[in-house]
Design a protein that fits this description.
The chain has about 240 residues and is of the alpha+beta class. Helices cover about 50% and strands about 20% of the residues.
């Protein structure tokens, strides 16, 4: 599947129809990808990721709300309204309701480009993903878990894996300490390119300011419709 050539003009001024859990066409994926980035290689990746995204994966509304706050704080409330319209997703979400994770990715791609317009899109995604843990931590569930998480990687990361499982239906995350300063993280997740950048950003965003982490991909394989990773995290 090849993305259409980049363009600087949009032929449709009205917001795109919501995809929800429906199967989408190559044309739909390409059209949305062109709205994210003018770079053809990035367009092709965005379109491919969305086209192959499993409709069974869902995410809690707290992440839509969190990205909304970040964009509004940085660019103003009008900017977020524009992104929602461009993405063709629900204008309002409920924190603990589950929504199609593909819809969140549409918002995530657009927000990363808006917040980091001069960076390559994978770098913008990593930077944006650094905000995901603070978003979760400020939620009701996050505040409940924070007392148990503490402020060290040895306590934060295993509970972060559990929080991931609660927040994203259709993912499976397991984290086990493999030494005093090493953790093994295994997960079955959406089969998208740039997942590593997202994961690295999330882990970096969860760490205290005095802790630097090094994340290595030790395994990447397929697991049915999902991608299977094993990450090694050292600090």
């Amino acid at each position: 599947m090849t993305a259409m050539p980049p363009t600087t003009e949009r032929t449709v001024d009205t917001p795109p129809a919501s995809w929800g859990e429906a199967k989408i066409t190559v044309a739909q994926a390409n059209e949305f990808a062109r709205s994210v980035t003018p770079v053809r290689a990035e367009q092709e990746t965005v379109a491919r990721n969305l086209l192959l995204f499993p409709s069974t994966i869902k995410v809690r509304g707290i992440f839509f709300e969190g990205v909304s706050r970040i964009v509004a704080d940085s660019q103003g409330p009008g900017a977020m309204a524009g992104l929602v319209a461009k993405a063709g997703i629900a204008a309002k979400t409920t924190a603990f309701r589950a929504y199609p994770h593909r819809d969140f990715y549409k918002l995530y791609y657009l927000a990363a480009r808006l917040l980091y317009p001069t960076a390559p899109l994978p770098e913008g995604l990593r930077n944006t993903a650094r905000t995901f843990f603070p978003i979760f931590k400020s939620s009701m569930l996050g505040r409940t878990m924070s007392a148990l998480m503490g402020d060290r990687p040895t306590t934060i990361l295993p509970l972060l894996a559990r929080a991931y499982n609660v927040s994203v239906e259709g993912n499976d995350h397991k984290a086990e300490l493999a030494g005093k300063t090493t953790l093994s993280w295994r997960c079955d997740v959406e089969p998208v390119e740039w997942y590593t950048e997202t994961f690295v950003g999330i882990i970096e965003g969860s760490m205290p300011a005095d802790v630097k982490v090094r994340i290595t991909v030790e395994e990447r394989a397929t697991a049915g419709a999902l991608a299977r990773y094993r990450f090694r995290i050292d600090w």
